[in-house]
Specification:
The structure is a homodimer.
Chain A: H1 3-12, H2 19-31, H3 37-47, H4 53-65, E1 70-72, E2 80-82, E3 89-93, E4 99-102, H5 108-116, E5 121-132, H6 134-138
Helix pairs in contact in A: 2-3, 3-4
Chain B binds a DNA duplex through helix 4.
Chain lengths: 139, 139
DNA sequence: CTGGTGATCAGTAACCATTCCTGTTTCCGA
DNA sequence: TCGGAAACAGGAATGGTTACTGATCACCAG
């Protein structure tokens, strides 16, 4: 996503695009996988050693709130972040912790069915998938 | 589930049915909702004040391993346990934390599709649903 | 240019669910 | 009954995340 678009999304919710928030976005695009907050922190720190881990958490939270960043949470593991905010499926290896995408699975209809079967106002429906990655299965 | 069945399932994995594990099961059936480990601990403690929280965690872990207890995990909230080990959908209110069941949603097919679209050996696929419960929506 | 105001930040302490550790008790088979 | 393994109580430790505090920064009005 382009910088002006991000700036506009932040502005609409009363936030500004600070250098730290921009650095977090750059780190996310560099990481290319599904980094944790700490992973992002380490990347940001390479260019800006004075940044604080708490700032990274807060930046990620703001960026998620305005819809620029997505997050996924597996038990017994830190929350993972990425720039792909479209609904998609990720799987995490229970041995090595690696996270990768599961292509070709559409969950759009499921969320609709859920909405029709609960009096709750659904705000989020995520599939959490775990397994053994090929490398860990072999060893 | 009947006590002899539980005992048999434990025995098959080399565990025994101790009084603490039985107390944890009783607490789960008393709680009737989706209690956290601490909720279970508080119920167990009413009858057995010397029980330790760590013991409850370990008992829940063993009981889950042998397939008597199920668990679900939402971000920013402790893990919830229940005696329903069949695949089913639970939704958690993001304001009050209440967890309740979403009936009438079958996810059996989804797991099969996931297996066919990833080289991982899938061990677990859970849907994590959040929203606002009717009471919190009104207020 | 200058001072004021609120958002943001760095640094660090605190929090909380969960796990780990240690010495003790309980349970089961011989 | 005895010996060894499993399980336990109590409490310390862990680790991801949040909260707090004072310092900075960006921006605007005068």
């Amino acid at each position: 996503m382009l910088v002006p678009d991000v700036r506009e999304k932040l502005r609409r919710s009363g936030y500004t695009l600070t250098s730290q928030r921009r650095a977090v976005l750059e780190a996310l695009s560099k990481a290319k996988g599904h980094p944790s907050a700490e992973d992002v922190y380490l990347i940001v720190k390479r260019e800006n050693p004075r940044v604080a881990l708490g700032t990274v958490y807060q930046a990620l939270s703001v960026l998620e709130e305005v819809g620029v960043v997505g997050s996924k949470h597996w038990a017994e593991s830190p929350t993972r972040y990425d720039l792909n905010v479209e609904p998609h499926l990720d799987i995490r290896c229970i041995r090595c912790g690696e996270v990768s995408e599961v292509p070709g699975v559409a969950l759009g209809g499921v969320e609709e069915i859920i909405r029709n079967n609960t009096p709750y106002r659904v705000t989020r429906a995520t599939m959490v998938v775990e397994g053994l990655c090929p490398a860990c299965t072999d060893s």
